[in-house]
Each structure stands twice: as structure tokens, then as C-alpha cells.
Write a structure and sequence with these properties.
253 residues; 11 helices; Cytochrome Bc1 Complex, Chain D, domain 2; binds heme C; mainly alpha; 0% strand
């Protein structure tokens, strides 16, 4: 009796495994990012992701010299977020690129409901390791922890940030970068020199008119010369400079 039951269960399991293998191998499953998982599969995968992040981030501690809520600190790392994350995750006043269609979709990191469910350590872990089989990238292999904490600070602060504040952060970051790159310019200095090297439309038009005037003057001179040349009879080419005859003496005795 017991043996028969075991055989039946074993046979059933084998059939299921065979069915799954056949299903996978047949290729009928749609792997496209344009077709979402069934809600059940989606929630299982999402739970696995959340549990994994929380488990792996357990022992991570925010370094004591890092204040993730400090705007000035976060500003230093604006370049990382604007280059590596905005394209998928948006920022206050900046939309994600419309062609970044992936599944699971990239959550909008300006939404408090998205960011506040994660602890600081968990946000850091996600940015450092990325998430398998999603579009979420890992900064770890190419960035120092110091930079990843900086990006974490930006993510932590995004939900409470206005578009104007995000734009100001960008401006301050650019000014910092200019100052660092050794040209010793403050943001005002940089802006002024930019203005100096960027001629206005009127300046451009004035230069164009000046050039045109010079061109006309040249043209007129060329015509005058031509007219003078035509009026004069063909004069022989100027006599060569008389050089003293070489007699071995260049002075009188
Ligand atoms: C190419 C698109 C893409 C880029 C670039 C990207 N991410 Fe993501 N990110 C994703 C996707 C997709 C998810 C959702 C993964 C999932 O649901 O398992 C995600 C999830 C996250 C989450 C967890 C939010 C949640 O609850 O799902 C955080 C935090 C995050 N990314 C931060 C960042 C940071 C910081 C950067 C820049 C260093 C970045 N991401 C760059 C696509 C991207």
C-alpha cells in the first residue's frame, strides 16, 4: 500500500518536472519586457528580492562621518546620480528617459513610498550590488563605497526635494567641479567667463558686418590697383640692384 502511494507521488512529480522542462524548452514562454509576469509570479519574485536585500544589508552600518540627510554632502555626488540613475529613476523635475522600458519597471525614486520602505543600509546595498535579472545596475564593481554612500544620500533625500532644489544642487555641483578643476573660478566667475566666451547674437552680427566691410574695402583696393596697372605702360621690370663689381677689392686704395 505504502509502496504504491510512493510510486504514485513519484510518478506525479516526474510528470510535473517533465511538463515544466517541456514548457521551458518549447519556447512558448514570452520573455519580453513588454509582457508582465502573472500577478502571482510578480509578487513571488518581488518578495524574494525584498527578503534578499534585507537579509544581505543586515550587517551594513552607515559610516560615522556620513550624514545621509545633509544636502551639502549629497551635492558632491550629484554627478553620479545624474549620470547613472536619472535615466531610469527620474529626479525632481527630471523625467526618466521614455525609452527606458524595462520589466520590472524602474520605480520612481522621488516617490516617498518607494524610498522610505528601505533602510539606509538597504539603499546602499541595492546601489552597490544591483538586482539580478532586472535592469538595476551595480555600482560596486566600478565605484568606491564612499561614492556609493554619496549616491545613497541623494536617493534618501530625493522624495523631499523640489525641482528647484534639485536644479540648485546641480548648479552647486558644477561650481564645485569648476573650482576643483583648478581654474580657481567661483560659480560666478565661471558663469562670467562663459558669458565672455559666448558672444551674444548682437556681437556676432556686428563682427559679421565688420568682416563684410573689410571685404568690400579689399575689393575696392584690388580694383584700384588693377586700374592703375592698366593705365601704366608695361614698365620693364625694375633694374636689379647694382652690386659693386667683384674685383677682389671692395674699397679704394
Ligand atoms: C537601466 C535602468 C536602471 C538604472 C540605470 C538604475 N536602476 Fe535602480 N532599479 C531599476 C529597476 C528596474 C529596479 C527595480 C528592480 C526590481 O523591482 O527588482 C530598480 C530598483 C532600484 C531601487 C529599489 C527600489 C525598489 O523598491 O524597487 C533603488 C534604491 C535603486 N534602483 C537605485 C538606483 C540608483 C542609486 C541608481 C544609479 C546608481 C540606479 N538605481 C540605476 C533600474 C535602474
Amino acid at each position: 500500500m505504502k509502496a504504491k502511494l510512493l510510486l504514485a507521488v513519484g510518478g506525479l512529480l516526474l510528470m510535473v518536472a517533465g511538463g515544466v522542462a517541456l514548457f521551458i524548452y518549447s519556447g512558448v514562454y514570452h520573455v519580453g519586457a513588454t509582457k508582465p509576469h502573472s500577478p502571482l509570479a510578480h509578487s513571488i519574485l518581488r518578495m524574494a528580492m525584498e527578503r534578499s536585500v534585507r537579509h544581505h544589508a543586515k550587517r551594513i552600518e552607515v559610516p560615522h562621518d556620513v550624514d545621509l540627510r545633509d544636502r551639502g554632502y549629497a551635492t558632491q555626488f550629484y554627478g553620479h546620480y545624474s549620470a547613472a540613475c536619472v535615466t531610469c529613476h527620474s529626479a525632481p523635475g527630471v523625467k526618466a528617459d521614455p525609452w527606458m522600458v524595462n520589466y520590472p519597471a524602474s520605480p520612481n525614486l522621488t516617490d516617498p513610498a518607494v524610498v522610505n520602505r528601505w533602510s539606509d543600509a538597504e539603499l546602499f546595498w541595492i546601489a552597490k550590488h544591483g538586482i539580478k535579472d532586472t535592469a538595476m545596475i551595480a555600482l560596486g564593481p566600478t565605484h568606491k563605497d564612499k561614492d556609493i554612500w554619496g549616491v545613497t544620500a541623494i536617493v534618501r533625500q530625493l522624495p523631499g526635494m523640489s525641482p528647484a532644489e534639485y536644479a540648485a544642487m546641480g548648479e552647486r555641483f558644477k561650481a564645485m567641479k569648476n573650482a576643483k578643476s583648478g581654474n580657481g573660478q567661483s560659480s560666478e566667475g565661471a558663469a562670467a567667463s562663459e558669458a565672455a566666451t559666448q558672444p551674444t547674437q548682437e556681437q556676432l552680427e556686428a563682427s559679421r558686418l565688420q568682416l563684410e566691410a573689410s571685404r568690400l574695402q579689399l575689393e575696392a583696393s584690388r580694383k584700384q590697383l588693377e586700374a592703375a596697372g592698366a593705365a601704366q605702360p608695361q614698365s620693364p621690370s625694375p633694374a636689379p640692384q647694382q652690386t659693386p663689381a667683384k674685383d677682389g677689392h671692395d674699397h679704394d686704395h
